[in-house]
Amino acid sequence: MLSTRHGVRVLGSPDLAAFGDLVAEDPVVNVFAAHRARVTNLEPRWLGGEVWGRFDEGRLTAACHVAANLVPVQAGEDDARVFAERALTRSRTVSTILGPQAPVRAFWDVVADTWGTPRDQRWDQPHLEIDRDPLVDGDPLVRRTTLADVEVLYPACVSMYTEEVGVSPELFGGSDFYRTRVKNLVSRGWSFARIEDGRVVFKAEVASLSPAAAQVQGVWVDPELRGTGLGARGMAAVVEAVRRDLAPVVSLYVNDYNVAARRAYDRVGFRQTATFATVMF
């Protein structure tokens, strides 16, 4: 039902068209929200949470995805503060706040004193895109993985996640839960890797997909082989495959301090189009 304060209410399947128009205002930055809407129809039981919409004279002007990930969608700083005030009326259920830097910071400023000490805060994460052929040749040994690769692929996925996030993904639901996620990505054709002699030396996955864009996450190079060019050539191969088969634009976001990764993405031809931020609990 519509909140009488600030014009905020929970969205549902009747709002799909309006939500689609909203995410289309910046379809690459909003690819996560577009993907979630496509696979859940904005139904809370499939979302594992809710999507809140803010309205102005009956028009949807901003939204906020509130599940394991809390993500502002086309939200200005005032919108973010309004969503944060609503969030304070309930217990925190989210494990991550992420999205464009300005609304994430505005949201966090409101809830910080109540939601507890985060495990990490990353306030400067360049959001990168590429909508053309890579500037370097793709690695011909990078391919889509198959279910037969999962036993070899899974340890690399755990290593990547642990290195990136700081804790093992197996802490969140156990190894079976995370292994199922890996298998799902493989089954969709969203997992790419170079595997040599039973060893993953490069990998990456598509995490979110819409007709406009694909967002890549989980990029990883075997630590013993970093600095050899595997990352740039591997990402070039992923870009080629994704743009050929899935979506015209490939996006990702990277920590500002990850100089090696940023250098590799620059070599491939990615350009920065926004700045993201992430708060992790």
Automatic annotation (TrEMBL):
The protein's name in its UniProt record: GNAT family N-acetyltransferase
Root EC class: transferase
PANTHER family given in the database record: AMINOALKYLPHOSPHONATE N-ACETYLTRANSFERASE-RELATED-RELATED (PTHR43877)
PROSITE patterns associated with the record: GNAT
EC number per UniProt: 2.3.1.-
Gene3D superfamilies: 3.40.630.30
MF GO annotations: acyltransferase activity
Keywords: Acyltransferase, Transferase
Domain N-acetyltransferase: 140-281
InterPro entries (UniProt xref): Acyl_CoA_acyltransferase, Bact_Acetyltransf, DUF4081, GNAT_dom, UCP21603_acetyltransf
Pfam families attached to this UniProt entry: Acetyltransf_1, DUF4081
UniProt keyword Acyltransferase present: yes
